[in-house]
Structure formats: structure tokens, C-alpha cells
Amino acid sequence: MSDSEWEQLLSSSPKDAYEYLIEQYGNLIYAIVFNKLGSYGTREDIEDCVSDIMVEFLRNAGNFSSDTGSLKSYISTVAKYRAIDAFRRLVGHNNISLDTDDENISLPPSDSNTEEEAGNHIFRERLWEVVRSLGEPDSSIIIYQYFYNQKVSQIARRLDMTSGAVQKRSIRARKKIRKILENEEEL
After folding, report:
1. Beta-carbon neighbour count of residue 75 at 10 Å?
2. Strand, helix or coil at 99?
3. How many C-beta atoms surround the C-beta of residue 40 within 10 A?
């Protein structure tokens, strides 16, 4: 469906337009929100933010015009800024200071082994970069499988793949991750 066809659908049947939006862009919005809130928010925070984005987008759908840009770009931009707003609210509650543009994290000092914590933090950041660099659908499979503890069958339904394909891609993706990280350790 083209963007102009979606605009016509929104005029004639908002419910169908909303369902199309969820089906077509739900995973994209979720990924954007997860990217901003994943380490700081709960799963409920992420899902609430995604829902808020969808509702806000539909309330302001009149601001979108297929003449000025694509629906995907528009909703991605809305999602990015709403996720940043949610992130700032979460950070404000947790007293964590962050630079959201660079995604550099500075946590307050703790009583535990600071050097070990720093090493773990650097490793987690690098692991996250490597997972995101895998490309789709591999990065989504790893995220759903290891960050959300979803079963292969759930991931397969979500990504419209067979369970066998998800399992094989997961195995290959883990091997890629291991190889990249091992090569970095050797340097």
C-alpha cells in the first residue's frame, strides 16, 4: 500500500489504517523505542511508549502528507523523539545523567569494584553494537531471543518466518557475534 493510499484509508476507515500501521511499522517503532529505552526501562515502559507513539501519530495523522515525505520516515521521526522524551523521564526518575545524542552512559559510582563494572559496561556496549550491526532479521532474532527471552516459535510468528529458519539464523548470528568479539580480543 502506498502512502497516499494509506491517507485515503485513514479518511475512510481509521480502524483499518491503524491496523495497517501496526502491522507494517509496529516492529520498526518497537526497535526504535527499544534502542532508546532498552537498558533503562522495563518491558512495560517500552510497550507503553510504543502505544503512546501509535496513539499520538493517529491523533496527528492530519499533519502527515505523502507529498512531503514517506510515512515510514514520518513515523520513525515521531517514534525517535517520543522515545527520547520517555527516556528523559526515566532517567529523571533514576538520577542517571546521559548524553542521548552520543548514547554515552555515565553512572554514579558504586561501592563495588569500579574497574570490573567499567569493563562489563564496555563489553555490554560493544555486544549491543555488534548485535545491531548484524542487520535484519538477525539482530531482531537475537534481541527477541536473548533480551526478551522469547521462544523461537514466538519470534517466527513475529517476523513471519518458519521456526527452523529462525533457529538457523540464530545459530549463524551467534557464531558471527562470537567471531567478531574473539577477533577484537586478539588485537
Report:
1. 21
2. strand
3. 17
CATH number of 109-186: 1.10.10.10
Fill in the DSSP letter of residue 137: T
For 126, the grid coordinates are 560493544
Sketch the domain layout of the chain as residue ranges: 3-97, 109-186
Task: Write the single-letter amino acid at 38.
Answer: G
Q: Are 56 and 49 in contact (CB under 8 A)?
A: no
pTM as predicted: 0.47
Task: Write the pLDDT tens digit of every residue in 102-144.
Answer: 444 444 444 555 556 666 667 777 777 888 888 888 888 888 8
CB 95 within 8 A of CB 44: no
- Topology at the third CATH level for domain 3-97: Rna Polymerase Sigma Factor; Chain: A (1.10.1740)
Are the CB atoms for 25 and 35 separated by under 8 Å? no
